Each structure stands twice: as structure tokens, then as C-alpha cells.
Amino acid sequence: MNIKITPRKLSGEAAAITSKSAAHRALICAFLCEQKPEIKIDNMSSDIEATVSCLSAMRIKNAPLIDCRDCGATFRLLLPLAAHLCNSAQFTGEGRLPERPISALLDALKANGAVFSSDKLPFTVSGELKSGEFVLPGNVSSQFISGLLLALPLLDGDSVIRLTSPLESEGYVDMTVDMLKKFGVEITRNGNNYEVKGGQKYVSPGEIIIEKDWSNAAFFLAADAIGGQIKISGLDMNSTQGDKEIVSILNRFKVCGELSGIEIDVSQISDLVPILAVTGAFAKGETVLYNAARLRLKESDRLSSVSEMLQAFGAKVEEKSDSLIITGGELKGGIIEGKNDHRIVMAAAVCGSFCEGETVIKGAQAVEKSYPQFFEDLKKLGGCVQVCSEFDEIGENTV
Which of 310, 335, 354, 362 is the most exposed place for a label (fewest CB within 10 A)? Predict the structure, then answer.
């Protein structure tokens, strides 16, 4: 699907959608309860649906097919659980998922009894996962740690997760620990280690209302800072979500009522990079986003994708191995490749709403991954959004 964006003033109020990160964790915890709680999710997405489908498959202990689609969270959060709960399980995925890093988690699981038919998807996991020491880097994926934290309390003995490097995206691990606590499971953090008592049971809290999502709200919060008048309702400033940092970052961008370039360490907030880069493109001076190497391992190589997107709008961008340097200036509409990446598509739509001239975003259906109603919400805020055919050029009539 191609979407044409014509610049319009954005204003009004939109409700924040359900946090898919919190939904993944709540659904998994609920699955592990003897008495099932009621999980209230206001907005579904293809990623959440992937987790629901995989949990359903895991009711079979012998060789279930666990299709994670292209959802890294589903894959990484469920793999340690399957290694414990299933006699064997077949994992598969699509898109870039088979290429995304998993070796560190596999090595930790292998060291504690799990057996894998291959080191890359698709593979079968078997063996008997045992408690013990799980050694992992903290700078590859926080989902490795979260996946282990969900599984290790069920093992007979005590375990410890030892991190060999500083933990990045720490807020997502905090979210996991917080969700586990709601289900009666206790985790102890001791410096760079997570200590997990074995033999714990997941206990239903009765009802869980999933909190709202800061990562997706960030696109419209940034649109407000760039030049809109937008309010997003339902967000919790006391959330463990690291991406609530968007509020303080946008305040840092504002100097005397105008946006000015800043430097941002994005190691803890990597999902914000596409929209922060767009904000920087509308700011005076230079914006530097650094400690961003992990973005090359997302749904797309996000450093490259963001750089290409902004250059298509006419921005000046310097791409380095782990950073982007963006010089603000006049932006014009262009043709943007969505890269099958939901955050690139949404960032491009915000950018196209404020630049000069029309913008066409190819592969805009990628928003289904996390925010299926994104374009509907953009319309409600005054955005001019039209579906256009594959052969339409900018400036021609849409269909």
C-alpha cells in the first residue's frame, strides 16, 4: 500500500494506544497461570497477534510449530519458555527475523541444557532447560534478558543472569520485572546480575489493564513540537517505559519557542530514533543521535533507513557506524521507501505533514506491526492522507 501525504496543520487530541511491549509480557504471564486473568487490550496489532498465536501453539508439548512471523519480541520472549515447557518445539519466522541476532541467547540456553537443530531460524529446540548461570551481553537485546526472566522462575533450582556489558533499553527489562511482580513472581537485581528463585508460581491478579504506549505516542508528541497543536491522552508518566523520555527530549529541543539541534544518547531509547531524527531535521543547527549501533539489527537497518528517508526529504544527514548527524533545513516532499519498517513509515508520515510539497510513502502497510490505526489517527488530527496506486506520481490524482 502506498500512502500520499499532503502537508496540513495537525491539531486536536488522540488517545494513546495499548503498549504492545506490555501486552506481550502480560499475555505470556497469563498463559503461565493456572487460573487465567482477564487481559484488557484496547488495540491489537500484528505483533500482539503473533504472540497470541504462538502461545496457543505452545499448549502442545511435542513439536508444536511456533511461527513468530517477523516479531522479534515474540521470538525472544518465548524461546526460553519453549525450551522449558515443550519436549521439542519448532520455531520459524519471516522478514528479517531469521537474520536478527540470537546467538548470545542460544549460547546461554545451550550452556544450561537446551539443544538446537540450527543456530538460525528455522530450528527445533529440545533438551531439558536447567537452572544455573546464564551469561549474556547487555548491549545486544534486552529481550534476551526478559525472555529468561519469564522462564527461569519455573525451573526447579535458583538461577542468575550475569550481564557482561552495560544493559541497554533497560526500561524494557524493568517492565518485565514489574509485570512479573503483578503475577506474584519476584526477581532480585544485584548490580549487573538478576537473581531468580526457582520453583515460583504465576498467580492470576484477576485483571490486567494494559498501559498505553509511549513509543508510538512519540510520533504525535514530536509532531506537536514540530509545529502542531496535539494532545495525547492516556499516557502514564510513572510508567517503566524508557520511551517516556520523549517528553524531556522534546523540551530540550525547544529554545525560545523554536527547535534547536541537540545531542542525544539513544542507547536506552532506540525505538525513538526515527522520530527524533525527523525532529532534528526541523531544528536549527545540528542534531546528533549516538550510541545507536543496535538500530542496524531492527526490522530494517534503521540507521541507513532513517538516513535515506531524510535525504529523500532533502535533509543533510551524515551516517556513521553508530550515529546520525542531522543538519536542519528546508524539507520538501519526496518518495519514501517504507523498508517494511513501521517506525520508518510513521516517521515519514509526520515529516511529510510539515514539509513543502506532497510525499508518497511506499509499503505504508508496515504500520500494522504496531499501530494499525496510525493513519486514521493522523487523519483525525487533520492530516491529509490518501491511498494511491503503485503507478501514481507525486502531484497526480489519487485513487
Answer: 335
- Is 335 a residue whose pLDDT tops 50? yes
Could you give the C-alpha distances from 159 to 105, 151, 179, 188, in angstroms and in order? 15, 10, 19, 11
C-alpha cell of 58?
Answer: 505452545
* pLDDT for position 11: 98
The phi, psi pair for 60, rounded to 5°, reads -95, 125
Distance CA 162, CA 143 (A): 14
> Which positions are catalytic?
271
Of 231, 257, 284, 331, nearest to 10 by C-alpha is 231
Q: What are phi and psi of 222, to 5 degrees?
A: -70, -40
- Judge whether residue 16 has pLDDT over 50: yes
Q: Measuring CA to CA, which residue among 3, 7, 1, 89 is closest to residue 331?
A: 7
59-83 pLDDT tens trace = 999 989 999 999 999 999 999 999 9
Which grid coordinates belong to 215? 513509543
Kindly report the pTM of this predicted structure: 0.94
Give the model's pLDDT for residue 297. 80
Nearest one of 311, 331, 334 to 393, comparing CA atoms: 334
Looking up cell 527547535 gives: 259
Q: Please provide residue 306's backbone torsions phi and psi, each rounded to the nearest 5 degrees.
A: -65, -45
CA-based end-to-end distance of the chain: 12
Q: Which of 186, 196, 130, 189 is nearest to 160 (CA)?
A: 196
Q: For residue 248, which amino acid is it?
A: S
Q: Is the dihedral of CA 75, 79, 82, 88 positive or negative?
A: positive
Lowest mean pLDDT among 261-265, 383-387, 388-392: 388-392
